[in-house]
Amino acid sequence: MKNATDGTKKPKKPWPTKEAMEQVYEMKLWGGDGVAFYSGIGSHHPEIVVPYVRAVLSFLRTFKSPLVVCDLGCGDFNVGKQLVQYTKRYVAVDIVSNLIAQHQEKFKEENVAFHCLDIATDPLPAADCAIVRQVLQHLSNAEVQQIVSKLVTYKYVILTEHLPMGDFVPNKNIISGQGTRLKKQSGVRLTAPPFHFKVKEEKQLLSVDSIDGQGLIVTMLYTVF
To answer: Does the predicted TM-score (pTM) go above 0.85?
Structure first.
């Protein structure tokens, strides 16, 4: 792409994620006609959301002292808002600035904070537990690797990904956007190459069929240290 004033080429951004996610909401690519921001059926369909909230709350309630939770890729916050009261502090992050601005106006709980960040390139908020729910599936391997290098600072990571049924080759690369690795019969597994996420313990919290019949939505709990 050339600069209109001097004819030189503008440097390419490493990842077009911010623009891609803004377009998703502006063009309603995940649905939600009549709604300013809608993060798709994965954030709204009861068969997906209800068991997920139940599983995560079951984990959060095991602690006598509530955890500080960082939601990396909070989307329209339909899911996160159901977890807030069971945390000491809930820090919700998303890359879309208008989305975060809406949340800051709408949600006024004292223990909730919203930040507009690119979780691949920006420093992440400190917390006991990171939630990453159906976010990495939309990102390139280069971005996922950047994020993995930061997840090691959290004691717990709750990761949810849309995965193919049966055996598959994990972590095939994609271009960041609204799509996922399912089109390549693949999905994100952080402990597999090329990410090699080192964890002390891993446990599957939940697996549910996707509404569209394409694979499973699997939630893993990683104890990092």
So the answer is: yes
